[in-house]
Design a protein that fits this description.
elongated
C-alpha cells in the first residue's frame, strides 16, 4: 500500500503540469503531465490499495484527462 499523501502530491503536480501545458503548449510540461498521470494510474491498478483509494485515483484521472475542461 502506497502513501495517500504521496498520491495527493502526484495529483497536484499532474494538475499543475496539465495547466502549464494547456496555457503554453510547452511539450516538456506535457511530458511531465504524462509521467505523473501514469503514476496516478499505478494507484488505480494496485490491488493492494483499498477500493476507496483506487476509485479516488480513477476519478482524478478522469478529471485530469487532457481533453477535460
Amino acid at each position: 500500500m502506497k502513501n495517500v499523501d504521496l498520491l495527493l502530491v502526484i495529483i497536484s503536480a499532474t494538475a499543475e503540469f496539465r495547466s502549464s501545458y494547456r496555457s503554453t503548449g510547452n511539450m516538456l510540461s506535457y511530458k511531465w503531465y504524462e509521467a505523473f498521470y501514469i503514476l496516478i494510474g499505478i494507484y488505480v491498478l494496485d490491488e493492494a490499495e483499498t477500493r476507496a483509494i483506487r476509485q479516488f485515483a480513477l476519478n482524478e484521472m478522469h478529471r485530469l484527462a487532457i481533453d477535460a475542461a
